[in-house]
Amino acid sequence: MSSETADLQTRLEAIKQEHRRRHLSDELDELAETMEETILQRVLAKAFFKEDVEIEHETRKEVQEVLELLERGQYEAVEERLDALKSDVDTAETLVQNRIQELRLKHNSTVTAMRRLNERVERVSSMRLKMLEGLLNDWRWKEQVYMGDEDANLDTLKENAREYGEDMRSAFDELKEELFGAYPDEIRDLIYRMIEDERLSYADLTDDQRRLLAESDIREYIELTLS
């Protein structure tokens, strides 16, 4: 084999390895981005919904380990672990997204009930309720967390996610308290259940509950029917 042929083969092999490295790098960058977003949504969910969505803590560590293998040029080791890593990252992402979807629907149902009550008693700004309802419906959390800086470090992004979640939680709690807090404890839950279209049995109400409902500002909206 001539030196020219050997040199050509060496260059072709180098090109092949570079292509391999870029392909693996792109795959891992995508996984790292997905993992980062999953972590941030988990932080946001804990701050807003007061729920700690559990994910496998080893998954993020695995992503970092495989990235280090890539940096050292250990392509075969990366390829051996890539499929399992993809599966773990996808599982974590699905778990967090599904739980957040459930929590969003639950809280949106509450906000809808609050809006319906407010339409009758006009106690708070309807615009505030619409804004909160819009945030729950259109879950554009990335804009509030990344704030245009895609290169911010994870600690900064986690703090942004926590602050955004706490702001949304404060808005939710304040509106709920302003609307339902005006009613005595004895009937507060009853009013919420009625706004949710739940049928209550008159026989199940105490004398105090009947009196308080009759004296409340929603008395004209209460109907008695024979079962």
Shape: elongated
Give the percentage of residues in beta strands.
under 5%
The first-to-last residue Cα distance is 98 Å
What does the radius of gyration come to? 27 Å
User: How does the helix and strand content classify structurally?
Assistant: mainly alpha
Order of helices and strands: HHHHHHHH
Q: Supply the number of structural domains.
A: 2
In round numbers, the mean pLDDT is 85
Helicity level, as a percent range? over 70%
Sheet with most strands:
none
Number of helices: 8
Which regions have little confidence, pLDDT < 50, spanning 5+ residues? none
DSSP strand count: 0
Keywords: Coiled coil
Structure description:
Residues 14-41 form a coiled coil. The chain has 227 residues and is mostly helical. It has two domains: 3-182, no CATH class; 186-227, no CATH class. Helices cover 76% and strands 0% of the residues. The chain is built from eight helices and no strands. The chain is elongated, with a radius of gyration of 27 Å.
Topology:
Blueprint: H1 3-49, H2 58-71, H3 75-121, H4 126-137, H5 141-146, H6 154-180, H7 185-195, H8 207-215
Helix pairs in contact: 1-2, 1-3, 1-6, 2-3, 3-4, 3-6
Keywords: Coiled coil
Coiled coil: 14-41
Which descriptors apply to this entry?
single chain, 227 residues, mainly alpha, 2 domains, 8 helices, 0% strand
Q: Brief description of this entry?
A:
The protein is mainly α and 227 residues long.
